[in-house]
Amino acid sequence: VIDKEARRLYIMDPIQTSQSLEEKKLRNLSGYFVFHFMLWWNGEDLVKPICAVSGNLNLQVEHFTFLPSIADSIREASLVISHAGSGSIFETLRLGKPLIVVVNEDLMDNHQSELAEELAEQNHLLCAHPQTLRETVEAMDLHALQPYIPGEARPVVALINEFLGFPV
Amino acid sequence: MGFDAFAAACCAIPVLVSVLAVRVAYVLCRSGLPPSRSRASGLRCLIVLGSGGHTAEMMNIVTELQKDRFTPRYYVAALTDNMSLPKAQVYEKSLIHGDRETIIENAEFMQIYRSREVGQSYITAIATTLRAILHAMWLIIRIRPQVIFCNGPGTCIPLCASAFLLKVLGLGWSSIFYIESIARVKKLSLSGLLLYKLRMADQFFVQWPQLQQKYPRAQYAGRLM
Contact at 8 Å (CB) between B159 and B48? Predict the structure, then answer.
């Protein structure tokens, strides 16, 4: 099921996801992937346990707290694992990359999970909880994901123009 | 003397209240109807930005707007949000053509106090909300927007409420366009719910058909992202 080529795994803001990727889970996955972690916020503390084991495994860990545009990093990735923020989700989908969204209802507002669940139902991404992330990655079939066709602002703006009496 | 003043107050107060009530009713009826001014020059806009996906969605709208119709553009973001205004500035700079210096002429960038930070206690939030409302009123009076675009961050509520108040007092008219965030699939945000129920928005957009069915006065015109 899992591709044996070395892959780049790009993780966005995984305060929740990194906590779920403990050493034994990394071991299970590292035979198949080169990990390229990118962490936001207080990445230092989160990265330490991962870096400690990375020497034994086929792991390449990078982290940063702010990048003006993560688009380039996403483009290089074969898979993106992200929190359920709409910005992260759509930035990844619009670049046509496979996405696993980690929903952690303990740590954030419920409203973020609505979007992830709806898009998972439409088969544009995979949804997981921190506890189920490993199984999701092991069982994932990325070819089954449907490409996401981006929306656009034109219809809304046309209605706004019409309301204001501008010629459309 | 005292009795006369008291009598005067007794007459004045009911009159004032009635006038205000009539004005509020008028504004509510007039909302949702196109404004009647002529299109000589551009419309002064207030664009409310918010953290996370809010700004990305809003900039999608701004990119699509015809700039000669919507100018000058005032961007507002919360004081503690340090990512949204730079994004707007990058966009506005990209609109400048030619060899002129990169001075943005048709846009201004402002920050506003938030009513409540994430995790802040609700008791201290009363004082900070009051401060946010006063600051919002000040910004609205200063800018006198003719059009307001917002899509959900809490910062838009004091601004929209202030704009509504100005309408009631007859001191200016702003058409409020609210586009609920794409992250809202089944339920409206608090900002959206307030603007929808109080009928303060002239046009109210949702980005998922399920929401449009639940809130029939909303319009569904596809997704922004």
Answer: yes
